[in-house]
Amino acid sequence: MESADLLIVGGGPAGLSAATGFRDAGGAGSVLLVGNEAVHPYARPPLSKDFLRGDSSEDSLPLQPSARFAEQAVAVRLSQRVEGLDPGTRT
Predict the structure, then answer these.
(1) CA angle, 47 as apex, 76 and 13 as ends, to 5°?
(2) What is the pTM of this model?
(3) Burial grade of 64 (CB within 10 A; 0-12, 13-18, 19 or more)
(4) 34 Cβ neighbours under 8 A, 6+ residues apart
(5) What average pLDDT does range 14-26 have in this prediction?
(6) 3-state SS class at 41
(7) Is-contact 40 11, C-beta < 8 A?
(8) What is the mean pLDDT of residues 64-77?
(9) Torsions phi, psi of 88, nearest 5?
(10) How far is CA 55 from CA 44, 47, 48, 58, in A?
(11) Mean pLDDT (the chain, rounded)
């Protein structure tokens, strides 16, 4: 079990937006983003259009460099699912 001051369930664009918005607004404390995909948040429309047609590279898909998560002190757990929450113990 892992605990965090802010838990974000979902590693897509909305999850990324929640994490960066929290930090940009001065949010302090530990932030944990959990996503069931094996990669950091990426641009989905270009994946289904440009990338699959061969018009763009895989490097163009991430919404931000993975190193930026560490810079923002956002822990990321990829290829994982949240099985349960216990607000009382913050786990």
Answers:
(1) 35
(2) 0.76
(3) middle
(4) 7, 8, 9, 10, 11, 76, 77, 80, 81, 82
(5) 93
(6) coil
(7) yes
(8) 87
(9) -60, -40
(10) 14, 10, 11, 10
(11) 82
